[in-house]
Design brief:
Aspartate Aminotransferase, domain 1; Aspartate Aminotransferase, domain 2; 449 residues; 16 helices; binds 4'-deoxy-4'-aminopyridoxal-5'-phosphate; seven-stranded mixed β-sheet; alpha/beta; 14 strands
Length: 449
C-alpha cells in the first residue's frame, strides 16, 4: 500500500533513504502553491509529506500516550508505540504530573465542569481567573494582567490590539511566529532587527524618528529564544525604547517560572521586574496548561486589549480548571519547591550540554531549559531524529519554518524530573545519531508531485 511505512533497518538502509527523496526538499518550496483550485493545489506538499512519512522521517503529529513525563510512550513516525526518554514535551518544572497540580485541577473540574462557556468579556471569567491575574501580576510586578486562551493568542492579540497601520514594529529577526504574524497583520511598517543586536535596533529606531516623530513604535523581543536558548540585553533594549519614544514588548513564554529568582524569568534575572513596558507569556511550557497573558502597568493598555485583542475578546476564555492549574503552578513556582525544581532543571541542562560538548557536539545558546543541538543540514536533522526515535530518545527535529533554512537543529527541552542516568544515556545516543546523520549519504532530490 502507498502509505504503509517502509520497514527500515538503520544499520543498512541510509543509502536507500537518501535515494528515496525523503531527505530532500523543505517546506519553503511549497509555501505558496499557484492555481485556482484551493482544494487541490496543496497536493505536491501532501505527496512530499507522505513520502517522508513512508520513510520514517516525518516526526510531526506523533501521539503521546499518557502524561508528558521524562520517560514517555510515543506512537507514530512509522513506529509502533514505544517508551523512550522524552525531550520533546514542554514541561520544564515537571509540574504537569505534580500531585498538587492534579488535585487542584480535579477539584475545580468537579466544582465548575470542564468549560469556560464564554469569552472573558462575556461571562468567561471565574474566581480562578481573577486570582490568576492577581498572582501573575505579583510575580511580574505588574498591576494589570489580561488572560488569553493560548500563548499564541496573547502574542498575536497584544501586537494587533496596540499597533495600527501608521505605526511601526521593530521585531527581533528570530521572534516567534505568533509575534511575527501579529506584526504583519497590524502594520506594513515592520522591520526585523538582527537577532539580539541592540546597535541595529538603535539604527532602525533613529531611522524612523528621523522621518516620523508622531507614529508609535513597538519593539518586540523574547526573554529566552526557544530555538536558540539565548536572551537579549533587556535593560539596554528598554533604555533604547525610552530614548526613541518606543514601547517594548517581551515574550517570556519559555523563561517565566523556569528561570530567574523566584521564577521571575529573564526579566527578574536582569533586574527589570516592573520596568518592562509590556510582558507577554504562555502557560504551556512551565505552568501545565494551555493559556497566555499580557501584563503591564498601564490601565489603558489593559482596556485596549480587552476590547481590541481578537483572541481575548472573540475566543472563549481559559476554563476555570485551566486557570486553577496555572494558579497552583504559580504557587509552587514562587515557593521553596520552585527553587529546588529550577535547580534540578538547570543541573540537567548543564549536564546534558557538558556531555554533548565532550562528544564534540555543538549546542547553541546558554544554559537554560532548552538545549538546541546544531546540525545545520535539514537531511541530517531528519536522519538523526529518526535514528533517535528508534533508539528510544524523543526529540524535536527543527527545520523551516520553525528555524531559518540551513539552520536545522534538534531541540531538546529539559525537565526538572529527568534523571542523571537518562541524561547520560541520551547524550551518548544523541551524539552517535548526529554523527551518523552528518556522515549519511546526501539526499537525492526528486521533483515533488
Ligand atoms: N511565544 C513563544 C516564544 C512560543 O515559543 C510559543 C509556543 N511555542 C508561543 C508564544 C505560543 O504559546 P502557546 O503554544 O502556548 O499558544
Amino acid at each position: 500500500m502507498l502509505n504503509e511505512p517502509i520497514p527500515f533497518d538503520p544499520a543498512h538502509d541510509l543509502d536507500a533513504l537518501a535515494a528515496s527523496g525523503a531527505l530532500g526538499g523543505n517546506v519553503a518550496l511549497f509555501r505558496q502553491p499557484r492555481g485556482p483550485d484551493l482544494l487541490r493545489r496543496g497536493a505536491p506538499l501532501d505527496d512530499w509529506c507522505a513520502l517522508r512519512m513512508r520513510h520514517g522521517v516525518w516526526p510531526y503529529g506523533r501521539i503521546l500516550e499518557g502524561p508528558p513525563a521524562p520517560l514517555a510512550t510515543v506512537e507514530g513516525d512509522g513506529l509502533a508505540a514505544q517508551q523512550g526518554i522524552n525531550f520533546a514535551s514542554q514541561d520544564y518544572l515537571s509540574l504537569a504530573g505534580h500531585p498538587d497540580v492534579i488535585d487542584a485541577a480535579m477539584r475545580v473540574l468537579a466544582e465548575c465542569g470542564p468549560h469556560s462557556a464564554g469569552s472573558a468579556i462575556l461571562l468567561g471569567n471565574s474566581r480562578y481567573s481573577g486570582a490568576l491575574e492577581h498572582s501573575l501580576g505579583a510575580l511580574l510586578h505588574c498591576q494589570h494582567v489580561v488572560l488569553f486562551p493560548t500563548g499564541w493568542g496573547a502574542a498575536f492579540g497584544a501586537v494587533t490590539a496596540l499597533v495600527h497601520g501608521s505605526d511601526y514594529v521593530l521585531i527581533d529577526a528570530l521572534a516567534h511566529a505568533s509575534l511575527r504574524q501579529g506584526a504583519a497583520a497590524a502594520s506594513r511598517n515592520v522591520s526585523a532587527f538582527r537577532h539580539l543586536d541592540c546597535d541595529h535596533l538603535r539604527e532602525l529606531l533613529a531611522g524612523i524618528r528621523a522621518v516620523d516623530a508622531e507614529a508609535a513604535i513597538l519593539v518586540v523581543t523574547e526573554g529566552l529564544f526557544s530555538m536558540d536558548a539565548d536572551s537579549p540585553d533587556l535593560p539596554l533594549t528598554q533604555y533604547l525604547c525610552r530614548e526613541y519614544g518606543a514601547t517594548l514588548l517581551v515574550d517570556v513564554a519559555h523563561d517565566l517560572g523556569a528561570m530567574g529568582p523566584g521564577g521571575s524569568g529573564v526579566i527578574g534575572a536582569q533586574g527589570m521586574l516592573g520596568k518592562i513596558d509590556i510582558v507577554m507569556g504562555a502557560f504551556s511550557k512551565t505552568f501545565a496548561s494551555n493559556g497566555g497573558f499580557v501584563a503591564c502597568n498601564e490601565r489603558s493598555v489593559r482596556r485596549q486589549l480587552q476590547l481590541f485583542a481578537g483572541p481575548h475578546m472573540f475566543s472563549n476564555a481559559l476554563s476555570p480548571m485551566q486557570a486553577a492549574t496555572v494558579l497552583e503552578c504559580l504557587r509552587i513556582v514562587g515557593g521553596n519547591e520552585g527553587d529546588v525544581l529550577r535547580a534540578d532543571l538547570m543541573r540537567n541542562a548543564l549536564e546534558l550540554r557538558a556531555l554533548l560538548q565532550e562528544e564534540g557536539m555543538r549546542c547553541l545558546g546558554a544554559p537554560s531549559p532548552i538545549v538546541p543541538l546544531w546540525t545545520g543540514s535539514e537531511s541530517a536533522v531528519r536522519v538523526a531524529g529518526m535514528l533517535l526515535a528508534r533508539e528510544g530518545v524523543f526529540v524535536n527535529p527543527m527545520e523551516f519554518p520553525g528555524v531559518p533554512l540551513g539552520g536545522a537543529r534538534l531541540r531538546l527541552q529539559m525537565m526538572a524530573r529527568h534523571t542523571p542516568a537518562q541524561t547520560r544515556r541520551a547524550a551518548k545516543l544523541l551524539a552517535s545519531a548526529v554523527r551518523r546523520a552528518l556522515d549519511a549519504p546526501r539526499p537525492v532530490l526528486r521533483p515533488a508531485g
